[in-house]
Amino acid sequence: MTKLRVAILVSGRGSNMAALIDAALDPDYPVEIVAVVSNRPGAGALAIASQAGVATAVVDHRSFPNREAFDSELDRTIRSFEPDVVCLAGFMRLLTAGFIESWAGRLINVHPALLPSFKGLDTHARALAAGVKLHGCTVHLVTLDVDSGPIIAQAAVPVLTDDDEATLAARVLKAEHELFPRALALWATGRARLDGDRVLIKDENAPGEALVWP
Predict the structure, then answer these.
(1) Which residues contact residue 162 at a Cβ distance below 8 angstroms, ignoring those fewer than 6 apart?
(2) Residues with catalytic roles
(3) Known binding site: residues?
(4) Percentage of residues in the chain with pLDDT exceeding 70?
(5) In chain numbering, where does the site feature Raises pKa of active site His fall (predicted)?
(6) Which CATH architecture has domain 4-191?
(7) Contact 32, 6 (CB under 8 A)
(8) Cβ proximity of 6 and 187 under 8 Å
(9) What is the mean pLDDT of residues 193-214?
(10) Among 162, 157, 160, CA closest to 179
(11) Which helix (H) or strand (E) segment is 9 a member of?
């Protein structure tokens, strides 16, 4: 089986990265993690990746005069590992238009909300303030409009009466760890494919009834 070669961009602890690496340990998983690249030399994700035997690299954004220079070096570093796809797993940098366009259709992000609701930051606080009963996460393709790219997959979690930001964030993060590997596998096998501005899923087997909470 020819596997999709994936590089992962990280900035912090790397829990979503770890979920992808763990999934790739299965010989039947259609993805090979070829590199982890961070913009922060002290990111905890780097140690996790190294321990798992995954190549790592650092492109420290503080060493560059502007975003364009940083993204140029980031692009060069990523391409040295020859990935097919780049996944953003807690990568806390806004990418330039040139970078995004150069990886169009091959740049995948996980966002902690059910897009198109709650784009941007502070998603859990905003969900609580809005009083929604379902929250969740989205895996989507990255486009020039932030958090607006075609959606590959989503997972919903209940919002409980006694939730605060921390408890809701923990529930959503657990869902992210399950969703991201599944969505990436759909993309790698071609079951998820881009059709214009949306992603179509082949052989869907969805329940015929509404998902209701509470």
Answers:
(1) none
(2) 111
(3) 14-16, 67, 92-95, 109
(4) 100
(5) 147
(6) 3-Layer(aba) Sandwich (3.40)
(7) yes
(8) no
(9) 88
(10) 157
(11) strand 4-10
Domain residue ranges of the chain, discontinuous segments joined by +: 4-191
Percent of the chain clearing pLDDT 90 (strictly above): 94
Closest CA to 61 of 32, 89, 33, 94: 94
Question: Which residues belong to the annotated binding site for (6R)-10-formyltetrahydrofolate?
Answer: 67, 92-95, 109
| Closest CA relative to residue 31, chosen from 185, 201, 190, 202 | 185
Q: How far apart are CA 187 and CA 193, in angstroms?
A: 7
Each residue of 70-120: pLDDT tens digit? 999 999 999 999 999 999 999 999 999 999 999 999 999 999 999 999 999
- Contact predicate 115/179, CB 8 Å: no
Kindly report the pTM of this predicted structure.
Answer: 0.96
Q: 74, 59 in Cβ contact below 8 A?
A: yes
Three-class secondary structure of residue 70 per DSSP:
helix
For residues 163-175, average pLDDT: 98
**Is residue 203 over pLDDT 90?**
no
Cα 7 from chain centre:
11
138-152: pLDDT as tens digits: 999 999 999 999 999
Query: In 3D, which of 170, 168, 174, 116 has the Cα closest to residue 140?
Result: 116
